[in-house]
Amino acid sequence: FLLQSFLKLFNEIIDDKPSGVLIPIPQYPLYSATLAEFGLAQIGYYLDEDNKWSLEISELERALGECKGTCNPRVLVVINPGNPTGQVLTRANIESVIRFAHKNHLFLLADEVYQDNIYDKDSAFHSFKKVMTEMGEPYSKMELASFMSISKGA
């Protein structure tokens, strides 16, 4: 319900083009279904399976470039830890994502509901909000919605 309420905020047509939302592939189907329900354009970016399902900035740039004529990109969704992949983003990766979102004027939506479900002893969860704050301005002033749910905990 919270996700639907949030995405309604971006449901507008500008210059005869719908708002676009970048979402990871693979991802939890709720995102693509909700985007379709509200008429928002789905901009898929692929996670790198060969590199522990990492999120590559070059892939975000590719996805953003391909959609420029068909929609107005407004939101970047990042699922960390990933569902269904289980990947956990490194702090350096999160910093790169934050810089990308800032550079491209994207609202950042961090789905962090599985932060307590990390089973790889070599992985550590880093909150987008904490990383943004520690990066300082201008990143600490960016718009961010971060989701957490105790119902998803172990």
From TrEMBL:
The keyword Hydrolase is assigned to this record: no
Cofactors required: pyridoxal 5'-phosphate
InterPro entries to which the protein is assigned, alphabetical: ALAT1/2-like, Aminotransferase_I/II_large, PyrdxlP-dep_Trfase, PyrdxlP-dep_Trfase_major
BP terms from Gene Ontology: L-alanine catabolic process
Metabolic or biological pathway, per its Swiss-Prot or TrEMBL entry: Amino-acid degradation; L-alanine degradation via transaminase pathway; pyruvate from L-alanine: step 1/1
Residues covered by the Aminotransferase class I/classII large domain: 17-152
Entry EC number(s): 2.6.1.2
Class of the enzyme per the UniProt entry, highest EC level: transferase
Reactions mediated catalytically: L-alanine + 2-oxoglutarate = pyruvate + L-glutamate
The UniProt record lists the keyword Secreted: no
SUPFAM superfamilies the record matches: PLP-dependent transferases (SSF53383)
The family this protein is said to belong to: Belongs to the class-I pyridoxal-phosphate-dependent aminotransferase family. Alanine aminotransferase subfamily.
Protein name (database record): alanine transaminase
